[in-house]
Amino acid sequence: MDSKKKQPLSAQSWTSASLLLVLVALVSKGIGFFRDILVAKYFGASLQVDAFMVALSLPMLVLGGLGFALSTALVPIYRKATVSSGATQANKLAGSAVGVVVVVSISLALIVTIIPHYFIDLIVPLLSESTRTLTIKFTRWLGLYVIGLNLVYTLTAIYHSCHHFKIPAFSDLLFSASIILVMIGFYLPLGIYSLIYGHILGIFLCAGIQLYFLSKKDLPGFGFNLEISNVKSLLLCATPILLFDFSLQVGTIIENYFASGLAEGSIAALNYAKRLSIAIIALVAVNISKGVFPTLSELYLEQKRDETRDLFLKVNKQLIFAFTPLSVFLFAFRSEIIKVLFMRGAFDHEALELTSTAFLFYAAGLVIVAIEPVFIRACYAFSDSRTPLFSSFLSIPFVILLTYILTPIMGLSGIALSTNIGFLIRLLIQVFYLQKKLGGLVFGELLKVGIASFILALVSLVPISMLSTDSFLSIVISAISFFIIYLVLAWYLINSEVRPLWQLLRQKISHV
């Protein structure tokens, strides 16, 4: 027997994958929160953080969507190729995706590196001269980070296409940990550059780990591959997804553009608030959408319409049930939470006020943002990449108009409110499409769960509002008490949603 014989990747079901991703993400986001706390402590809501946020958004706008688009397109195409042509052809397709990402990412990164000032003057012309100068310097470094990020996206999709989620999940932990270690170790000599170098080191460490384990597995034909037929099929499928991701980056540019005309530190405050809400979404909703994506793709290929509909409804009902009380709690205690998390060092009362103002509407729209990743992945699983793109581009003019009107009146709150209305417009368009695709979907059933969950959350909030929330421990106690009351009420009043979820969790945890 050949002891060096390569073994196939282990496979996980969508429920096991989702649970694994959520648990690992819980640790990763905990590390990420600590990183944000360090950034707030060291730099506060300053022009340095403004420059970093803008510099990160620029290469993400120009080339960051490439990895996301190809990786998202790769999963259903890989599954289809495996069924129709076999594993060898599917893995050649994976190699083509890696080749395209590496070549195109490096080419675009060179453009950003050579002429960053043209892009900066176009998308954030209201920056002060000192912030602009720093942004140009940071952008030239962060192009490297986005090259690595694109590669990680694509490698992760290869694992997910094989229903394997463990290695990408745990490599993400090392990425987050690397940023913190570099910041702590080199903050004094490097300043804000410790944050930049930490991102670059962490993402290439993540890519290296994934490449190493792929090389050890039974993936015939995988390699740096630029076969024309594979490249063409990938690009045709990925182009609408790329445009969709570009539209999401445009949303960030719109926010930064209007925030740059407000008080200094407004971009940083807006991004602190947004990162806090996105971290919560990424912790659960995005990981569940990743876990269920391959299964939805297979059910669609097998034309199991009823099973596809049931799975889609089940996942979204549980997300609504979980995120509605979270949204209510964060909205009610937004200032206290942000104060406990960030208020130290350079993060002062003015930064607290700015960040709390923006976070108000991000917290209010949490449920919409939580279920949208599943809607988008469902569209891609059904071989429709046009609906997410159409919904996003249709929402952009409304967001621009609303932001233009509301920012002078409401400040950062106007920007956050306009963004949430854009999310709602996108989601409603996707609902309309999926309702036809799955046959008498959804909207009524999901709305019913949402209303019931919202009422129970408000009732649960009443006794909690009398508790103290002036320390981290008191906020934790309040949060635990709130969710216990909510779960007890839900167990008896909307048990059709709670009890199946509890049974599923018990079953999966017992097998861990």
Bin the strand percentage.
Answer: under 5%
Considering DSSP H and I runs of 4 or more, what fraction of the residues is helical?
over 70%
> Which secondary-structure class do the elements indicate?
mainly alpha
End-to-end separation: 31 Å
Average pLDDT, all residues: 77
Low-pLDDT windows of residues: 1-5, 508-512
Give the overall shape, derived from the CA principal axes. Answer: globular
Number of helical elements: 18
Q: In this structure, how is the largest beta sheet organized?
A: none
Order of helices and strands: HHHHHHHHHHHHHHHHHH
Tell me how many strands there are: 0
Radius of gyration over C-alpha positions, nearest whole angstrom: 23 Å
Write structural notes for this entry.
There is one protein chain. This protein is mainly alpha-helical and 512 residues long. The chain has a domain at 47-246. It has 18 helices and no strands. It is globular and about 60 Å long.
How would the blueprint of this fold be written?
Layout: H1 14-43, H2 47-85, H3 87-114, H4 116-123, H5 129-161, H6 166-190, H7 193-215, H8 228-259, H9 266-301, H10 305-332, H11 334-342, H12 349-364, H13 366-381, H14 386-410, H15 412-438, H16 443-464, H17 472-493, H18 495-510
In a few lines, what is going on in this structure?
The chain has helices at residues 14-43, 47-85, 87-114, 116-123, 129-161, 166-190, 193-215, 228-259, 266-301, 305-332, 334-342, 349-364, 366-381, 386-410, 412-438, 443-464, 472-493, 495-510. With 512 residues, it is mainly alpha-helical.
